[in-house]
Amino acid sequence: MMRFMQWLRRGNVFIWFSGAMLSLCLLMILGLVGFLAVKGLGVFWPQTLVQAQGPEGPILGEITAFEAPQGTEPAKVQFRVGNRDIFGQDFKWFKAEEISGRQLPKDALLIERLENGVFIGRIQDISREGQVIAKEGAAAEEVKRLLPATNKLQARIRDIEKGAVGDLNRKLDDCRQALDSAGDPKARTALEQKEQGLKSQYDRLQTELDGLRATARTHSVTLLAVDGQTKEIPLGGIVRIVPANELGWFGKVRLYFSRLWEFVADDPRESNTEGGIFPAIFGTVMMVLIMSVLVVPLGVVTALFLREYAKDGLLVRAVRVAVNNLAGVPSIVFGVFGLGFFVYAVGGTIDQLFYSSKLPTPTYGTGGIIWASLTLALLTVPVVVVATEEALAAVPRNQREASLALGATKWQTIWNVVLPGAAPGILTGLILAMSRGAGEVAPLMLTGVVKLAPSMPLDGSFPFLHLDRKFMHLGFHIYDVGFQSPNSEAAKPMVFMTALLLLLVVVFLNLFALRLRRKLRARLGGSTF
Asked: The whole model's pTM is what?
């Protein structure tokens, strides 16, 4: 008993308690990341196609879930049967006792399409300009042979539509708006000639696109569902053909990484439930970088004034309390403020002054990445202010005194001694601000983020960086796919995978800032904050 009391008095119980809490937090974090990784990354692994006899006829698809019997409810099996345009839904539940005669047919195919999700069945035939050129097994081989060239053709069509045609449309809109407000006859004539030249370029592109589309429609494929229904689609509407029951281990690994790359690097399809999420990754990273550029000077200057120049008094203490309380304000309040002040007031004024010819169509008077970044900069500025004040306070007093003793002014001392010494601490505040800003969604929904952005804020068109454009964000993508998608079962894997990618983006940005902070600390020394 005495030894136990001594153990308590030495405080060992608190050490063990702290260690247990730390371990619990780490386990929770690892559990969350592991859960997201298993649920998200597992969806790309090809599953076998099972054919069975169900209560209403034959079934062919992937077994995606199983529910054990509960009370009077029997066990259930979920099949991903695909063929949304034929069956009306991608997933179906069956009572396990009603499923019989399971087989793994070698000729069953999973066909990923540009529209209507996947088709699970077989290829009946392939036609060229209406004439059947191959049937059944030979048709499948012919489709596999022709598909790579057709996919390249489709990629070329998408590049033209998204790049050159979109750029020409924007230039034509600008030209028409300038014509509406042009009063000088010479300027009007020049604008009309410019518009005519743009229209000629547009017509040439449309002619090229029509030719490419006609080539892509040359071949058509007739797909056969397990219940005998058929569906004819152009060969260009097929993304990938997966002979799921014939794939070996290396084939599955190659297909897995192909699907994973498509998810990371491609554009979304099918209301964001298919394809990739590259625009959302790009928009998230760009928004965080712009926010970081805006929040650092704002927070550092504020902290510098409060710490180095302002005299302690009631007003300064009130300002510090206000800054600290800002961190507790709900983020949606910042969104409402950003919408009212930045979008309507500031953006509307910019439109009146510089883009009046485009009104009533707003340029900056609507949501955009600049307003979303500014709103998040305001939301995270308390973190930077507090961290910077602590970092400035941690700079050794003797360094300031040595600089002043050598004849330097106060500003020269701050610029050459204090700020370099506090730089690692300022970067600590920036890291915390980036983590907070990357995960916020509510303010972005009011100030610039959209479900699907036709153009990204950074591209090859002058002036290259388009701060007025709307953008996609990983956090909003999770909300949209998870809670707004009409096909919730198909959207589940996208939610897990997008959440995992958002975590990875935050970790990557933090690692970049940590590396920068370590280099600064090694070069400048400075505080240990």
From this structure: 0.84
